[in-house]
Amino acid sequence: MSEVSEVSEVASPEAGRIAVRKTYKLYIGGVFPRSESGRSYVVQGSDGGFLANAALASRKDARDAVVAARKAFGGWSGATAYNRGQVLYRVAEVLEGRRAQFADEVRQATGVSLAQACGEVDAAVDRWVWYAGWSDKIAQVRGGANPVAGPYFNFSLPEPTGVVAVLGPQDGAGSALLGLVSVIAPAIVGGSTAVVVASEKYPLPAVTLSEVLATSDVPGGVVNILTGRVAEIAPWLASHMDVNAIDLAGAPGALADDLAVAAAENLKRVVRLPSADWTAEPGIERMTAYLETKTVWHPMGV
Amino acid sequence: MRFEYAPAPESRSVVTLRDSYGLFIGGEFVGGSSVFKTISPATEEVLAEVTHGGPEDVDRAVAAARQAYERVWSVMPGRDRGKYLFRIARLIQERSRELAVLETLDNGKPIRESRDVDVPLTAAHFFYHAGWADKLGYAGFGPSPRPLGVVGQVIPWNFPLLMLAWKVAPALACGNTVVLKPAETTPLTALLFGEICQQADLPPGVVNIVTGDGSTGHALVAHPGIDKVAFTGSTEVGREIARMCAVSGKRLTLELGGKAANVVFDDAPVDQAVEGIVNGIFFNQGHVCCAGSRLLVQESVADEVLEALKRRMATLRLGDPLDKNTDVGAINSRAQLDKITDLVAAGDAEGAQRWAAPCPLPERGFWFPPTVFTEVSQAHRIAKEEIFGPVLSVLTFRTPAEAVEKANNTPYGLSAGVWTEKGSLILWMASRLRAGVVWANTFNRFDPASPFGGYKESGFGREGGRHGLEAYLDGPGGGDV
Amino acid sequence: MSHNGLMTPFQSDASLRRFLHGLPGVDEVGARARADVLASRSIKTDSKRQAIDLAISMIDLTTLEGQDTPGKVRALCAKARQPGYGAPPVAAVCIYPDLVPIAVEGVAGTGIKVASVATAFPSGRAALDVKLADVKSAVAAGADEVDMVIDRGAFLSGRYLPVYEEIVAVKASCADAHLKVILETGELGTLDNVRRASWLAMLAGADFIKTSTGKIAPAATLPVTLVMLEAVRDFAADGGRRIGVKPAGGIRTEKDAVRYLVLVNETAGEPWLDPALFRLGASSLLNDLLMQRVRMETGRYSGPDYMTVD
């Protein structure tokens, strides 16, 4: 594992230069607005010290994010699988280029060692590459011709479901970046678009991730990232009638039950997978959960 | 008013041609015992000197591939193999202009085709297969399929770089190492690919490129140190290789010749059908195994379609392959030109009616004007034998059943085209045509996700798609991938 | 009854439908692929110069705004007569009917045509007698050409006969003026409909078929124009007259214009490479053509400051 330069040390005044600190905003529709509520909340480092103020997203931000995601769905689902794969691979390239920055943010947020933080970042990039390679293959694994008893050509194809709400993992190992990447990538690789709620405790890598998305040919609105309180935002997404699916990874038990009930109103596809060791290679359930199967019949005859 | 297009040549300067090229073995370019020249078929100028790989060179290459397989590539996690393939794909994209110009110089095909078809598809093949490297357990061949080992691959001159991609990408993705023999007349883009492997830091010996002639290919196929053979080329040579592998027991896939029928019904979208006919036989100067070399047109619309076809053929631009407006480039070699000329003479002798639009041919180089024969019947040589040139044979039919019968009446079975607005007829025809690829209302479309290969004497095995991985895997087994 | 040498026994929507739907279909993917290949032609040096001047001479320089005034039209005509930099004059000016007298004066003695839109342009939604009066007033005021719109509502609901008869009536009201029939291809939805509407217009007596009003998107596109060029080619081959094609709207750059000329060259052929049979409906295109013309002459890139605003 290669070394990461100690750029973070430069932030302290003792080193001589006053750092220009970053502001952390929401990522909606390809741009970076502050919360329409004007609110923010304090993000603390693992040592309890002040890291930054992150935007505290409101239900209106969530609403706007769903609008942006819906608007982006036509173009993203209409792109070729090859094109989506290329875009996702480009995201991985840009992520890799920012390895040092991410490792730093993960370390400061979660308190792990620099080596462990680098390990998480590397795993996140590799995870993204794994998903990128699925774009033009999932149809071959999940689709195919069906041998019906009659002079009909019959085939089944997976199609993206639409707008997916993703509650990113909140805490626990890997939730700052690796877990986040592991719930976002499968939602969009098949052509759906996503509204993501980041970890409340570790939101800063999520915002940096949105900067990566914004500079990697990902069309605006395909991924929207909100920072704030899951308990406040999630119910609005779970009950939203224009959201087609929801991943409850970041909702604790009782809340998850309530959200699943709310989601039933428009029969959202609900993803409730047992909490994962994010370092393990995922299966394909998180992708297939967002894929509808369309079966087409056509007669064969002169 | 006449609207002539002024010359619009692509510049050659993006390519730096070396005077001589070695063999790419064990990650290095190394010399061999003898050399030969490769020329531009459009001008007959010598482009470079290339090393001829003798049996000892093939030996070295196989040894390098074996060592790389055992020590590095077969033990490397699929995720990492995939990353190398992604790098290669990116490098191909970055050097795409250089590759396109080099391919046009060495092969004779129009720059528009190298630039818009060959090179983008080459990159796409590497991208597609990169993603399979760590997902082989999902491909339908068991939970942990293993590679075969060292594969020997012999490719033709019609799509030199693309055929390299079709062979190398899946082989590597599945964990095999390769020794590749490019065609004698088109070695240069394969050698540039060797450089790209170096730029990607691909572990030495994973890809080896041994240039040479038929004897080099023979030595490779016969080599006891390889586990599998993949060959694309003529049916004649394919048969010989099948005999050799029957004795040696090596795994084998073959992609051979064709004499595809392009079937046009009376309710076809005529203008697009004409494009499809033209594309089917004049794309790449007809040097395409899956070329639509037999037009089967429904008799009721034959005159109308022929008239539209001839009108369209008259707008084809033949000439300098480096000119961006050229549609039809040079025939790849003197030998191929002779074959085409002979078969065309046979067509004349057997009584078919020949037509070509007025077409001035450049003085130097190897050229053949786009030609169409009408009043052809199944018994004619030009309806049976693969010409592998810009020559179309036209036959007629009356009913769908007759179309199927005539289309299938050949030992080949690589591809077929169907043109009609009626969906059920397309599917009915597709289910009855004995061809590995059926194009409906289109032709000559390729994609790394789409399996390609033939029935009958057009070969066996598929390249591309999930199905194409099978040839490079050893079936269910234990161990990590 | 016959028009242009072709028998037209169309007494009903159904009989017209049988004819129009019996025309060969258009495969959209294939048509787009052909247009893309033709768009990749590389037109350089002499052929580019030639194409630029040809394109300029084919422009129907257009202003169709609610806020048009005599002053605006006079300025347009001045630009039409003398685009500048040694360029040839354009083919026509295209304006609303009430400004025809101004335009007639503005291009008098130059050979530039005055084309007027009519028939409740752009929507076409008005009673027939109102639309015919619109045409007659434009012609009476001196218009050389009339650009009418077809009734898209009728076309899309299969009422082909009223569409046909309306074109016939408008042609009759044109007297000596040439009739361009705007299909509004952006509303027709499919290339099959573009082919059918083209044939319908040609059978009814159109002198030109035109893609768009320019008031909705998409306006002119290469695949649509390809299908229309195939239609006029086939109509002429069938023993009919040669009918012109005018793509209009959305053609902004020299590159766009040259692509259209390549399309004409390789589809309908040389006879259509003439303002008598091919026009480009545009406004800002002229300045881009002039800028390219200047660059080819001087070797320097020009800028908006050097191109007059009309």
Task: Characterize the structure shown.
The complex is a heterotrimer of chains A (302), B (481) and C (310). Chain A is α/β, with parallel strands linked by helices and 302 residues long. Helix content of chain A is 40%, strand content 17%. In chain A, strand 1 and strand 2 form a beta hairpin. Chain A is globular. The longest helix of chain B has 22 residues. The C terminus of chain B is likely disordered. Chain B has two domains: 264 residues, Aldehyde Dehydrogenase, Chain A, domain 1, CATH 3.40.605; 180 residues, Aldehyde Dehydrogenase, Chain A, domain 2. In chain B, 38% of the residues lie in helices and 16% in strands. In chain B, the strands form four sheets. Chain B has a seven-stranded mixed β-sheet, with helices on both faces. A six-stranded mixed β-sheet of chain B has the order 8-7-6-9-10-18, sandwiched between helices. By secondary structure, chain C is an alpha/beta fold. Chain C has a single domain, classed as Aldolase class I (TIM Barrel). Chain C has 13 helices and ten strands. In chain C, strand 1 and strand 2 form a beta hairpin. In chain C, 54% of the residues are buried. Chains in contact: A-B, B-C. At the A-B interface, helix 2 and helix 4 of A face helix 2, helix 4 and helix 14 of B.
